[in-house]
Amino acid sequence: MPWPSVAEYEAPTAFFFSINTHSHLSMSSEELIAALAAELQAPELTLNAQGVCQFIIDDGMLINIEESKLEQRLHLYAEIAPVPAMERENFYASLLSAQLFGQEIGEGCSFGLDESSSSILLCRSFRCSGLEPEEFIDMVGEFINWAEHWHLKLSGREVENTEEESVLSAEAPQESYIRA
C-alpha cells in the first residue's frame, strides 16, 4: 500500500499523555540537599555562597554537589585519580572502554579531565525538577559507590569483585560489531 499524500493524511484526533501532579514537581536544589543532610544526619551540609556543597566520605574522598548557574540542575563530581605521567594513552583507553554503553560506570556518569589539577573526575548531572528526595539520595549513594570503585581501581588497589562483575568479565565470543 503506498503512503498517503499530504492532502490525504488525517491528523490524529486525540493525544494521550499524563502530567505528573506530584507535589515535588519543582524541588529546589536546597530542598534536595536538605533531604540528603537529614539522611546523613549532617545538618551542616548546605550550599555555600558559591552554590557548592562539599563533604568527605569515609576514605577521604571529597564529593562535590554544585548548582548550575544557567538552569535548575545539580552537578555531582569527585576527583578519582591524578592523570599519570606515563602511559596516558592506556589510562584514557581504560576510561573510555568502561564508559562505552555504561559497561563499568554508573547510570548518567561520565569521566572528565580537570586540566587545572591534572586529575580525572567522575561526574553526574541531573535536573532538580521532578526529582524526589529519595531518588536524589539514591543517586548520590550510587555515585559515591562508583567514585570509590574507580578511585580504588585507578590507584591500583584491589576492588571487591561481585558476581555481577565476574559475569561481565567472562570471556565472550568476539563479534564484528559493537553490542549495546
Q: Can you offer a commentary on this structure?
A:
The protein is built from four helices and five strands; from the N terminus they run αβββαββαα. The longest helix has 22 residues, at 133-154. The chain has a five-stranded antiparallel beta sheet. α1 (29-40) packs across α3. The model is unreliable at 3-7, 9-24 and 162-180 (pLDDT under 50). The chain has a single domain (29-159), classed as Yope Regulator, Chain: A (2-Layer Sandwich). It has helices spanning 29-40, 88-99, 133-154, 163-169, and strands spanning 52-56, 62-67, 73-82, 109-114, 119-127. The two termini are 34 Å apart. 29% of the residues lie in helices and 20% in strands.
Number of domains: 1
The chain-level mean pLDDT equals 78
- Note the beta-strand portion: 15-25%
Spatial ordering of strands, largest sheet:
1-2-3-5-4
Question: Rough shape?
Answer: globular
CATH architecture: 2-Layer Sandwich
CATH topology: Yope Regulator, Chain: A
SSE order: HEEEHEEHH
Count of discrete alpha- or pi-helical segments spanning 4 or more residues? 4
Cα(first) to Cα(last) distance is 34 Å
Q: Give the low-pLDDT segments.
A: 3-7, 9-24, 162-180
Number of strands: 5
Structural class by helix and strand composition: alpha+beta
Tell me about the biggest sheet? 5 strands, antiparallel
Radius of gyration: 21 Å
CATH C-level name: Alpha Beta
Q: Classify the helix fraction into a percent range.
A: 25-40%
Pfam families: CesT (PF05932)
Quick overview:
29% of the residues lie in helices and 20% in strands. It is an alpha+beta fold. A hairpin with a 5-residue loop joins strand 1 (52-56) and strand 2.
